Fold these 2 entries.
Entry 1:
Amino acid sequence: METMEMKAAGIVFMRELFKQSAAGQEEEFLSQLNPEETMQYKNCLPVSWMPIYNYVRILKRGAQILFPGDPAPLQRLSAAEAEYDLQGVYRVLLKVISIPALVNQTAKLWDKYYKRGVARTEADYASKRATLFVEKYPELPAESRETVTGYLKGALNLTGVKNVQITPDDADPNQWKWLITWD
């Protein structure tokens, strides 16, 4: 069986947010981690592979502290990460790239961040719809799927396209879907 791991880039981004957060927030967060999670949080690099269940536990706890009261703190954290990641020259490119092309690029990058699953896209330019599919990964945790939703929201909002809507479809664990529409 393939390893269920992913790159720790989101954890490293969250560490940076805690440096800018209110006093005591990171200490509160660290008090909720077990020793293994604390070590992973403090020592990981963006290119480090981390067991996915540890990754989502750490990210979820941190997101809840960074965005208290937010109904979707993982999505908000991941959207902020996308906005951070796509600064500089990427921000200029996002103004000219089509949404289907951006979603297609997301699928192409899947295996750079996840050790399992196969991502692909389908798009219908005329009806302004695209779908991101992730297959061969039925165990993909719900929290991880939330981070995908958030990252897509953050990235797609940078394109300047109006009324971008992302609807996750979790009905079939053999084929996770994110339905994307825009005006």
Entry 2:
Amino acid sequence: MHALAQGSPHLQIEALQEELETARASANTWEQLARDEEERANLLTAQVSQLPELEAQVEQLTIALRASRPPAGDELVDDDPWSTLPDLVTGDSDSAEDLFLHLTDATSGHIVFTTQAASIWKKSSYPFPDEMTECLTKLAHAAATLYDGTDRNLPHLDNWFRENFDLKVALQDDTIERNAKLRYFDYEGKTYDRTPHVKVRDHTAPTQVGRIHFALDSDKSRLIVAHVGVKLY
């Protein structure tokens, strides 16, 4: 307004026009800001109105999630019995019984174990339980396959064990076959021959020569394991 007081009418008009333009620009700016704030307020109002619906959806999803979870303490069961095996512990008959029962169930009874097998394991103190578990598992797989109902011509059963299951199986043993006490055992009211055996580990100290002795029971489609431990003699 200083120009209005001191300038000519022409200069006063120009000054007024400049002030008018500045005022208009400022007014436009404030008008745009007002519109922006109004749009933001409308958006917030719309979001607030949707809160009850969103809360209801969250509650429904929470209920569905809880319903899909197993009850507390329950665990998902793996359908594959071979994926997780009980740990076999040296000198522990309970761990042996757990593993034996698991393998019997996994093969639908195509491999079974005598009660003496667990006590023999305990007394043997065989120092390589993982190695023994591996061989027992392979033997269980072999039993399930051998007695799956398929007609097989197996003139050399020991070769079949080796080629298909990587098991070193001996079907004869002169020392055992000459000693009835070593050779025979009773199970479920019948006498069986436990000469067949898996050589778990060989050519080492006597306490480390691992053996699994079993009988072939073709009448009941199963292997009967009677000895899990070290060499019989």
